[in-house]
Amino acid sequence: MAQVKICGLREAAHVAAAVEAGARYLGFVFFPKSPRAILPAQAAALAAEVPPGVARVGLFVDPGDALLEATLAAAPLDLIQLHGAESPARVSQIKARFGLPVMKAVGIAGPQDLDALWDYALVADMLLVDAKPPKDAVLPGGNGLAFDWRLLVGRKWLKPWLLAGGLTPANVAEAIRLTGAPGVDVSSGVETAPGVKDAALIRDFIREAAP
Ligand SMILES: O=C(O)c1ccccc1N[C@@H]1O[C@H](COP(=O)(O)O)[C@@H](O)[C@H]1O
């Protein structure tokens, strides 16, 4: 049964829907350019309602220490998701300085991108295997774009990992079957418009991913 992360949550009703349906990770986006961006104080209010056993994930894009410090001081988080161009050294530095596990996102467009997963597996606690964004994209993730899942067939990494990128209630079961992903992460695929989550889609997604 695949573990599910629902990312980009901003409303208590959607947090509750995800938790009740069995989500294992809930993501809060601390990247101002995202339509899913949330303030630390708002995330803190949502995070306070999350029961033990469900991890509260803070998503950052190339964050400086000051942003991490201020966000972590305001909102209780269990896992830091790094979704920018952070180097392996920066991942190690953030882990050491802030004392939280780190999940590093790696964008995949072709077989040449898979090597980076090995480098990050040495320093990150988890990997997030996502589609590489188009060159002109404003967001480095959360674009609802999938990559060729066949690239992952038969691959294993040293760390737990989640599959992401263009997943929806309609395709997530096939994505898990093909790749063997132990977990999946979704944002756009459970929305009716960018940044607008839908409780029914959240439930559908979790049911399809973790039947
Ligand atoms: O969701 C966002 O707005 C976002 C912004 C910046 C970086 C990553 C973001 N989301 C992550 O992107 C992937 C895939 O999202 P989608 O399902 O294709 O929309 C997922 O890991 C989100 O956590």
TrEMBL record:
Per UniProt, the keywords (alphabetical) are: Amino-acid biosynthesis, Aromatic amino acid biosynthesis, Isomerase, Tryptophan biosynthesis
Molecular function GO terms recorded: phosphoribosylanthranilate isomerase activity
Q: Which Pfam families match?
A: PRAI
Identify the domain of life. Answer: Bacteria
Class of this enzyme: isomerase
Ranges for the N-(5'phosphoribosyl) anthranilate isomerase (PRAI) domain? 4-207
Q: Which reaction does it catalyse?
A: N-(5-phospho-beta-D-ribosyl)anthranilate = 1-(2-carboxyphenylamino)-1-deoxy-D-ribulose 5-phosphate
CDD domains xref list: PRAI
Gene Ontology biological process terms, A to Z = L-tryptophan biosynthetic process
- Residue stretches in coiled coil: none
NCBIfam families noted in UniProt: PRK01222.1-1
Regarding protein family, the annotation reads: Belongs to the TrpF family.
- How is this protein named in the record? N-(5'-phosphoribosyl)anthranilate isomerase
Q: Which organism is it from?
A: Paracoccus siganidrum
Protein encoded by which gene: trpF
